[in-house]
Design a protein that fits this description.
Elements: E1 6-11, H1 14-20, H2 23-31, E2 34-38, E3 53-56, H3 61-73, E4 78-80, H4 94-109, E5 122-125, H5 136-140, E6 149-153, E7 165-168, E8 181-185, E9 192-199, E10 202-209
Parallel strand pairs: 1-2, 1-3, 3-4
Antiparallel strand pairs: 5-8, 6-7, 6-8, 9-10
Length: 212
């Protein structure tokens, strides 16, 4: 009896491919009946596969359209993550709104405890050169930010520039920022970042050491 093999097509940036698609992973997947196949982004997605599963981290309207066309021809295929499902993650303000939602849900479910979740104080700035920490309360709703603060681009689209951040120590530093920018309270986290990876009902917590 022939066991069905599953085909996973992946479309990742070169940096992600090098860190994620290791020989050990490819061999382990193969031994479990799963074939990892690199998607050629120079060719239409509909002309490749068929894939049972499409794993990607690419963005843009053209790629979104290719995913939609592929699912029309392959309605049983699974795409992770589908662009509409992660739209809010491209905005640094919207992505943290979910924390407040979780906190409210958690408090509604537990009467005797309060949630320990929290996010840094932050505000979106559209004219950075006119920003002054002393004036933050006027448009930041009384955030009372203090130096140093962290400045990041509002859009988080996975590009190299979206990962860059600045540690600002004075008002003069705001003159170097591009808009729109998120100005965020600096929280000393001891150089440790906790990342949670979730696939359906399976979750994995990883602790990374980070130096700003």
């Amino acid at each position: 009896m022939t066991t069905k093999r599953f085909s996973i097509g992946y479309a990742l940036l070169l940096k992600k491919q090098k860190s994620f698609i290791q020989d050990s992973l490819v061999n382990l997947a193969k031994s479990r009946g799963i074939d990892l196949v690199k998607i050629d982004t120079e060719k239409p997605l509909v002309d490749q596969g068929p894939f049972d599963f499409v794993l990607h981290k690419l963005y843009g309207e053209e790629w979104r359209k290719q995913l939609q066309d592929y699912l029309i021809l392959n309605p049983n295929a699974i795409v992770v993550d589908f662009p509409e499902a992660i739209e809010r993650l491209h905005n640094r303000i919207l992505m943290l709104d979910v924390v407040s939602e979780i906190e409210k849900l958690d408090n509604d479910l537990r009467d005797d405890e309060t949630a320990s979740l929290g996010i840094p104080k932050q505000v979106v700035v559209y004219v950075p050169e006119k920003l002054s920490i002393n004036e933050t309360a006027s448009f930041g709703e009384g955030l009372n930010l203090k130096f140093p603060v962290i400045a990041k681009l509002l859009v988080a689209d996975g590009s190299a520039k979206s990962h860059k951040m600045l540690l600002v120590f004075s008002n003069e530093g705001f003159e170097k920022l591009k808009s729109p920018t998120v100005v965020q309270e600096f929280v000393n986290h001891g150089g440790v970042i906790f990342k949670v990876y979730v696939v359906f009902r399976i979750s994995l917590l990883v602790m990374n050491f980070f130096v700003l």
